Amino acid sequence: MKYDPLDHVAAHFLRDLQPRRVASRNERDLLRLIWKSPGIERSDLTEPLDLTQQSLHRIVARLHDRGMIAFSPSENRRPGPPSPELSLQKDWCLTLGISINVGSIGLCLMGFGEPLENTEIPQAGSSLSEEMDRIGAAVKDILARRSANRRDVLGVGLAVAGHRMLESAFNCPLPLAHWSLIDLAPLLGAKLGLPIWADNVARTAALAEAIFGVGREVADFAYIAHLHGYGGGLVSGGMPFRGSFGNAGEFSVLFGQHDYEERPAPSLLLRHLHANGRPDLTLKDLKSEDLAQWQGVAEWVDRVAPAHNRTVNALCAVFDPALIVLGGELPHSLARMLIERTEFNNLPRHGALRDVPKLAVAEVIDAPGAIGAALIPLFETVL
Quick check: do 5-88 and 94-206+369-381 share a fold? Predict the structure, then answer.
């Protein structure tokens, strides 16, 4: 039987049992508006939600009774009856984000839409069972530090590095082969006793940037994720665009076998630095902001700049974003080096150039995949 995370959401979070759901469509629209504009007055919600005042008051009262929103006195001195200010009740639920990367497993604990804590454990070995045991122990620890338990957790977002094959199965890089081609949500769900939503780690990193980073003011942008490999995500209308098979943003597909080694992937930079006298470096070491000064780095950036430009111009041609963000685990110094070498294919026509996107460095740099993963249960159920 197909795994459905909603079947595993704790009953005290549910609004309805048949069908199982945490919030109605109108409630979700209202909650998202409050989340984006904390402190908004109840009277200011009627127009954007296209609800009658009676309906709005009924929905707000129901959400308040469930402990999902908090009231506070309005500071406005407007004529008429006072209207309370609304905000999300941050302790109504917790969510967890878990990102599976080469070399590290990131975890994020999130309140009702607000990151609380990030942590990281090493990813090593080739036993899926052992790594899930270590994830289970890490989840227990991060909850204990907040004096919380599993009953407080609405759900878990699992972000995995690799091409999506099935709903929660991925084809991962070689160091993550033991995570590949396995329906992961039921396995991890059984281990943690929690509902699991799964997605690609580059796409969840793009979601984190859309909500907490430079994408906050941009509805449509592309995110290039420099992790172990070279992928990314497309954000359209403020939300990730997945495509028909769940793999929109797999920028490595732009490269054939003959030029696959010329992508600006951190694993290839690591190999280059190993050959240039730094054999003990790991992917984690590449986060150093001094990276730009290391011998061989500028040479490598020059070599991969054409591949970077191919991706940028493909995004301009197909997606036409307002912004392209360089993120993942790419140090800002290296991102700026690539931005400096960006060349747009923008030949003038009748003396005029077309608009091209701005390029920016990601603002969410600590565990972006895990932060975005922790948002998934919220966007799937209440926001």
Answer: no
Task: Give every CB contact of residue 199 below 8 A, 6+ residues apart in sequence.
Answer: 157, 158, 159, 160, 164, 240, 242, 246, 373, 376
Question: Where does residue 365 rank: exposed (0-12), middle (13-18), buried (19+ CB within 10 A)?
Answer: middle
CATH number of the domain located at residue range(s) 94-206+369-381 in this protein: 3.30.420.40
Q: Are 253 and 313 in contact (CB under 8 A)?
A: no
Give CA–CA dist 68/10, Å, rounded.
15
- Distance, in Å, from the CA atom of 306 to the CA atom of 333, rounded to the nearest integer, reads 18
Residue type, 113: G
Per-residue pLDDT of the chain (383 residues; tens, 9 = 90+): 789 999 999 999 999 888 899 999 989 999 998 888 888 888 777 777 777 788 888 988 999 999 999 888 776 655 556 678 888 999 999 999 999 998 889 999 999 988 999 999 988 777 999 999 999 999 999 999 999 999 999 999 999 998 898 888 999 988 899 999 999 999 999 999 999 999 999 999 999 999 999 888 888 999 999 988 888 999 998 888 888 888 888 898 888 888 888 898 888 888 888 888 788 888 777 776 677 788 888 898 999 999 999 999 999 999 999 999 999 888 888 899 999 999 998 888 888 888 899 999 999 988 899 999 999 999 999 99
Cis before 19? omega within 30: yes
Write down the CATH superfamily of domain 214-363: ATPase, nucleotide binding domain (3.30.420.40)
Distance CA 21, CA 25 (A): 10
Three-state SS for 225?
A: strand
Q: Indicate yes or no: pTM above 0.85.
A: yes
Q: Which residue has the tokens 């972006």?
A: 368
Instruction: For residue 269, give the nearest of 315, 324, 331 by alpha carbon.
Output: 331
Cα–Cα distance measured from residue 362 to residue 324, given in angstroms and rounded to the nearest whole number: 9
